[in-house]
Structure formats: C-alpha cells, structure tokens
Design a protein that fits this description.
The protein is mostly helical. It is built from five helices and no strands.
C-alpha cells in the first residue's frame, strides 16, 4: 500500500515514470522502515526526481543558476581584494617616486 502511494507521488508530483522508480522500491522500503517525516520523504523523492532528470539529460537550471551566482559573487570578492591591493601599491609607488624625485612633488591634490 505504501509503495503504491510513493509510486503515485513520484509520477504525479515529481514526473518520474514507474519504469524508472520500480528498481528503487527496495531502497524506498528501507527508508520507510525508518519512519521518516513528510519533509524527509519530500527530500528523498525530490532526489529521485533529480536523478531521473539527470539520467534523461535534463539540466537542473535552478542549481546551475545558483552555482554560477555563487561563482560570480566569489569572483567579485576577489576583484575587490585586487582593487584594494592595487590602491595600496599605487600609494606605495607614489611615495617611492616622491622619495626618488622630491622636486616633482606629490601627484595627489588632497
């Protein structure tokens, strides 16, 4: 009875055909023996759905977008660090230049 409900949920809510889910029944029965909560079942079934889409060559656009967004945020952070380093280096080189050529004065107007 429980397996029929799971198969139906996989088919209707997650779009996983029975042919794909049937070999997973022993694993689902082991999960069921642990009496998972409905939230835990949703995670298990969503994982099966992702596996099905991956096996069909479908890409999970949401995960891909999140990964790219994270990489872009990391890249932006590294650019900020580089910008700060270049500012420090510019000030240092200006001071070296002033020390070597005191007659030129400072390039800064502040």
């Amino acid at each position: 009875m429980q397996t029929e409900k799971l198969m139906e949920a996989l088919e209707t809510r997650f779009g996983v055909p029975r042919e794909f889910a049937t070999p997973l029944l022993p694993m689902l029965e082991r999960v069921a023996s642990g009496e998972p909560s409905s939230a835990e079942w949703n995670v298990v079934l969503a994982g099966i759905a992702r596996a099905y889409r991956a096996s069909q060559g479908e890409v999970d656009k949401g995960a891909e977008v999140n990964e790219v967004s994270g990489l872009m945020n990391q890249f932006a952070g590294e650019l900020k660090k580089l910008d700060e380093s270049l500012k420090v280096l510019s000030v240092y080189l200006d001071r070296v230049n002033q020390h070597m050529h005191p007659s030129l004065g400072s390039r800064f107007l502040h």
